[in-house]
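quick one before i forget lol
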Amino acid sequence: MFQPVYLDHNATTPLAPGVLAAMLPWLESLCGNASSRHEYGRRARQAIDEARQKVAAAVGAHPTEVVFTSGGSEANNLFVKGAAASRKPGVIAVSAIEHPCVLKPAAQLARQGWILREIAVDGAGRIAGDDYLQVLQLKPALVSVMLANNETGVVQDVAALAAAARAGGAWFHSDAVQAFGKLSVDFRMLNAAGVHALTLSAHKINGPKGAAALVLDKRVELQPQIAGGGHERGLRSGTENLPAIVGFGVAAELAAQRLAEHAGRMQAMREHLESGLVALGARIFAAQAERLPNTSYFAFADIDGETLVGKLDREGFAVASGAACSSANPEPSHVLRAMGVAPEVARGAVRVSLGAGNSISDIEQFIKAVQVTVGRLQGLTAMAV
């Protein structure tokens, strides 16, 4: 019997068995609040401290630089809004391909006296050098450029971008949610180049939903967005999601341990996938750029992406037509629009994002399913003409 194949790991990942095992005691018998002074509370505090150390070690940071949040969206908002509240209104520059949880708070700032400047990308989804130089001439106070794009997988040279922005005194943030666990992410190296903050998320690395982190240079002053009891260095009040934080720590540790093997295997599978897709007539977006090893974004001429995703789902393959968090939006991908892709082509976009549980056999079965499904859809299109 054919088993459904999950090919949407950039949306979320299955919980690793070791992560679940570490979380279970905190979901069952252990109930302490980390702010309590008794033994239960002390054990809870120790568990959070250990998780913080594991997350920090996975990205070359110090534990005191890790601020836990409920998700990547909260971490991004904490930096964008928190940094803006600590600086005089000026220019905030964000790339045109950022996740909505960076673009939307930046747009909110624009309604509060800030000047929003979107940084253009080229046809391959890379930051456009000439436009970035023009942005830097505006002396932005805040800059946010994601390390790897969630749709195309395109990787940006964040270290070089941050170094160029440092002379103007900008605070530089990078959303590293998709890069973490797929690429080597070294906050100490990035921080030395001029990166002040990174966003990470547990559920993208086989950890639980509900835990993420802002890795923050302690010299950067942020205004808390959630006021209360002063948790997380006073930057994020609220009783900690202890089971999820414990799971995040274990997931980060496992991701760091498997990184080299995982990346190489994902790259081999992606190349096999794209070879098959191109043979069927697919266009691979950003094929000429450095990309995450697990991510392929493609389209077939005159085939609607949502329709293809639905047909493939019925064949037992879970893929995406764009970012999971904005799948209800009928508009073409803002990432592809920023890359200059025509709307009629962008509407055909489908994303495959591989994970640890996938195999070459999955890829071969998927290519066969795509061949049959696209053939049927193209036949229907021809009949309608």
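fyi The first helix runs from residue 17 to 27.
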